[in-house]
Amino acid sequence: MARLAGGVALLTVLDPVGRDCGLTVTAVSSVSLEPPLVLACVKKDGFIHDALFVADGWSLSFLAADQLDLSDYGARERHPGARDDFSPWPTRRAARGELIFTGAVAAVECVPYDLVDAGDHTIALGRVTAVARDAGGAVPLVHVDRRYYEPGTEVSFDS
């Protein structure tokens, strides 16, 4: 699966006491247009997993190529009790309080729709309630083969 290229997002949620939590995710997908649903897969033993079960909402910021440092920060190992500090990156608060990264290429705000057991992960399904209109990133960050890339030349085929 490492050979399957995908976008990079930062999933953000508030923990039960209202602190910011964020996690870099690459297993992200659009699921449905009606209702508008997206999914993100989160490892069960990860620090953010339990927060998703009590959150009023969560957001996905689809990272731009110049946000590699943010992606690395969200993917770092954390010890119990660790806290996230996203102050180096431009953000705003979503309707339910979680962070939206305004330098991203796009972002969606979600309310919980379902949490599905999937082996060592949970699939978090969210119903999209808002789409960011202030995302300013131009070039998406892509992850493949455990490395980051910018999209390259457009390829097309002759009809």
Structure write-up:
The protein is mainly beta and 159 residues long. It has a single domain, classed as Pnp Oxidase, Chain A (Roll), CATH 2.30.110.10. It has 2 helices and 12 strands; from the N terminus they run βββββαβαββββββ. It has helices at 49-54, 68-75, and strands at 6-7, 9-14, 20-25, 28-33, 36-43, 58-62, 91-93, 99-101, 106-118, 121-131, 142-144, 147-149. A 7-stranded antiparallel sheet has the order 3-2-6-9-10-5-4. Strands 1-11-12 form a 3-stranded antiparallel sheet, with no helix packed on it. The longest helix has 8 residues, at 68-75. The relative contact order is 0.25. GO terms for molecular function: FMN binding; riboflavin reductase (NADPH) activity. This is Flavin reductase. Residues 1-150 form the Flavin reductase like domain.
Descriptive labels:
single chain; 159 residues; mainly beta; Pnp Oxidase, Chain A; 7-stranded antiparallel beta sheet; 3-stranded antiparallel beta sheet; 9% helix; 43% strand; globular; FMN binding
List strands and helices in order, with pairings.
Blueprint: E1 6-7, E2 9-14, E3 20-25, E4 28-33, E5 36-43, H1 49-54, E6 58-62, H2 68-75, E7 91-93, E8 99-101, E9 106-118, E10 121-131, E11 142-144, E12 147-149
Antiparallel strand pairs: 1-11, 2-3, 2-6, 4-5, 5-10, 6-9, 7-8, 9-10, 11-12
Sheet with the most strands, sense and barrel status: 7 strands, antiparallel
Determine the CATH superfamily: Electron Transport, Fmn-binding Protein, Chain A
Q: How many E-type strands?
A: 12
- Please give the CATH architecture: Roll
Give the proportion of residues in helices. under 10%
Remind me, CATH topology? Pnp Oxidase, Chain A
Name the CATH class: Mainly Beta
